[in-house]
Design goal:
The chain is mainly beta. The protein has helices at 2-29, 62-74, and strands at residues 45-47, 56-60, 78-82, 85-89, 92-93, 98-102, 106-110, 118-119, 137-143, 146-151, 155-157, 174-179, 182-187, 190-192, 199-202, 205-210, 213-215, 221-224, 231-237, 240-243, 248-251, 253-259, 262-265, 270-272, 276-282, 285-287, 306-308, 318-331, 337-341, 345-360, 365-369, 375-387, 415-432, 441-455, 466-477. It starts with a helix and ends in a 9-residue tail after the last strand.
Length: 486
C-alpha cells in the first residue's frame, strides 16, 4: 500500500508544481504590460502634492489624492507618488494602470468621519450582495481594475474607524477592498489598525501579495470568490501577519499559494470557509499568543493554525481538493489542523508533509466530515506534534458533536477522524508535555486506515490508544501496536 500512496503523492506534488509554474509563467509573460508578477509600468509619476495634498495629518486630502489618481489614469497609467508626510483621507478610487507608491515616511490615514467612505457593490446574486451595503466601505477601493498596485515602503493606517452601527456594533471600513480585478499587486506596504479587514479581495484573479506586514485589526488578507467565480491565481508570499482575527481567510479559491509567511493571530492562522482547489501552504511559521487582541472578545490566545472548514459559516457548496501543506512550523495553537466538512461540501486529496508543532493546548487534530460524502484521501507524512495533554478518563467519555466554528476539545488527545475513505499516518510522532489518559486516536467510519511509523507514548492507566468504530481496513507497520481489531 505504501508504494501506491507515494506514487499518488508524487503525482499531487507534480500537479501542484506544474499548476503554479504555469500560473507564474503566464503572469511573467505579461510583466511588460504590468502583471501581478511585476511592478506595473511607470509611464509617469504624479506627485500628490502637485494636486494640493497637504500631507499634514490634519487636512482632509481625499479630493487632492483622487485628482492625482484620475490624472494618472487619464495619462495612460503610471505611479501616484506619496512623498513623506501624513495624508488624511476618505475613500480613494483606484484606476486601471495606476500604482500608488507610498515612499518611506509616507502614511495614508483613514478619516474618522464615516461619511467620507464609499463602498464596493457586489452583484446582488452573490452571498456578499445580500450584506448590509455599508459593510463594503473601504479606504482604498477598486472595481473591475487591471494592472493596478499599491506598493511601499510606506504605511496605510486604518485608524480604528469603528462604526457603532456596523458588524458586531463596531466594525468600520476595510482598509483595501478590490473587486472584479485582474493583475493586482500589493507589495512592501505596512497596514495597521484596520477597522475591519486589512485587505478584502472579491472575485479577483492573478493577485500577488508580497512582503506586506499587517498588524492589528480583524482579518489580514481575506479573499472571496463567488459561486462559479473563484478567486484564482493568488499568491501570498513573504508576508507578516499580527492580526486580531484570522490572518488569512476566505472561500471559493483556485490556484492559491501561501508561502514563507509569519502568521500570528488571536484567532485562526488560515481559515477557509468555502471550497478551494489547488491550494499550497508552504514554509510558514504559525505561532501564538496573538500580539494584538481579538477585538470582539479581547482575548489573545491563538486558535487553529490551519482551519479548513467549507460550509462552516453558511451554505457554500463545492469541493476542497488538491491541498498540499508542507514545511510548516507551529507553536502555541489550539490545534494544528482542523479539517471539517458540512453538508453540500466534498473533499478530495489533502497531503500534509514535514510539519512540526509544539504547545498544542486544546484539541486533537481532526479530519471530520459531517456531510454524506467522506474526505477521499488524507495523508499525514513526517509530522511531529507535542500536545500539552492533561486529559482524564472522564474527558475520554466526552460525546462528540458536530464542530462549531472553531476547534473544540475532543475525547482523543492526538487525532480524531470521521467519515474518511483513505487516511494514512506515515512517520507521525506524537508526544505529551503532561500525561493524558484519553485515547491517542479515535476513528469513525474510515474505509482504510494506515499506521506506518505512527509513534506515541504509552501511559499507565490510560484508555486504549486506538478507538476505532466502523473502520473497514487497518494496516499497521513499524508501530508499537498489534494490528487493532476494528
Amino acid at each position: 500500500m505504501a508504494p501506491n500512496m507515494n506514487l499518488h503523492n508524487h503525482s499531487l506534488l507534480v500537479r501542484a508544481a506544474v499548476s503554479f509554474a504555469l500560473s507564474l509563467a503566464l503572469m511573467g509573460a505579461d510583466s511588460e504590460s504590468g502583471s501581478a508578477a511585476a511592478q506595473p509600468r511607470a509611464k509617469g509619476r504624479f506627485d500628490v502634492r502637485d494636486y494640493g495634498a497637504a500631507g499634514d495629518g490634519r487636512t482632509l486630502d481625499s479630493l487632492a489624492l483622487n485628482q492625482a489618481i484620475q490624472a494618472c489614469a487619464a495619462a495612460g497609467g503610471g505611479q501616484v507618488l506619496f512623498p513623506p508626510g501624513t495624508y488624511l483621507s476618505g475613500s480613494l478610487h483606484l484606476r486601471n494602470g495606476v500604482t500608488l507608491l507610498l515612499e518611506a515616511g509616507a502614511t495614508l490615514v483613514g478619516s474618522t468621519n464615516l461619511a467620507d467612505y464609499e463602498r464596493f457593490a457586489p452583484p446582488a446574486d452573490t452571498p456578499e450582495g445580500r450584506f448590509r451595503p455599508a459593510w463594503h466601505r473601504a479606504l482604498i477601493l477598486g472595481d473591475g481594475l487591471q494592472d493596478t498596485a499599491v506598493i511601499g515602503p510606506g504605511i496605510i493606517n486604518g485608524n480604528k474607524v469603528f462604526d457603532p452601527q456596523g458588524e458586531e456594533r463596531m466594525r468600520g471600513p476595510h482598509t483595501i477592498l478590490l473587486g472584479n480585478g485582474r493583475h493586482l499587486t500589493l507589495r512592501d506596504i505596512t497596514i495597521i489598525d484596520s477597522a475591519n479587514y486589512a485587505v478584502l479581495l472579491e472575485n479577483c484573479q492573478q493577485v500577488e501579495v508580497r512582503n506586506v506586514k499587517i498588524t492589528g485589526g480583524w482579518d489580514g488578507v481575506h479573499f472571496r470568490g463567488w459561486p462559479g467565480r473563484a478567486c484564482r491565481d493568488v499568491t501570498i508570499v513573504g508576508c507578516q501577519f499580527y492580526t486580531g482575527d484570522d490572518s488569512i481567510a476566505g472561500r471559493y479559491w483556485e490556484n492559491v499559494l501561501i508561502s514563507d509567511c509569519i502568521v500570528n493571530s488571536s484567532c485562526n492562522g488560515i481559515r477557509l470557509i468555502g471550497p478551494a482547489t489547488h491550494l499550497v501552504i508552504h514554509g510558514c511559521l504559525f505561532y501564538g499568543p496573538g500580539v494584538h487582541p481579538h477585538r470582539t472578545s479581547n482575548r489573545y490566545n491563538m486558535l487553529a493554525a490551519i482551519n479548513l472548514q467549507p460550509g462552516a459559516w453558511d451554505k457554500t457548496e463545492g469541493v476542497l481538493d488538491d491541498v498540499l501543506i508542507a514545511d510548516v512550523t507551529m507553536r502555541n495553537v489550539t490545534t494544528p489542523f482542523h479539517f471539517t466538512l458540512k453538508p453540500g461540501n466534498t473533499a478530495g486529496r489533502l497531503t500534509i508533509n514535514r510539519v512540526g508543532a509544539t504547545g498544542v493546548y486544546r484539541a486533537a487534530s481532526s479530519v471530520e466530515s459531517w456531510a454524506d460524502a467522506p474526505f477521499t484521501n488524507v495523508v499525514f507524512r513526517d509530522v511531529s506534534i507535542e500536545f500539552d495533554g492533561g486529559g482524564t478518563l472522564a474527558d475520554a467519555r466526552l460525546p462528540i458533536k458536530p464542530p462549531p466554528a472553531d476547534a473544540r476539545p475532543l475525547p482523543a488527545w492526538g487525532f480524531y477522524a470521521r467519515n474518511v475513505k483513505h487516511l494514512a499516518f506515515e512517520n507521525v510522532r506524537l508526544s505529551l508535555a503532561n500525561g493524558d489518559l484519553r485515547p491517542v486516536l479515535i476513528g469513525e467510519r474510515v474505509e482504510r486506515l494506515t499506521l506506518d511509523g505512527f509513534k506515541f507514548p504509552r501511559l499507565p492507566g490510560a484508555a486504549d490508544p486506538l478507538l476505532l468504530t466502523n473502520v473497514a481496513e487497518v494496516h499497521v507497520r513499524d508501530t508499537d501496536l498489534p494490528a487493532p481489531k476494528p
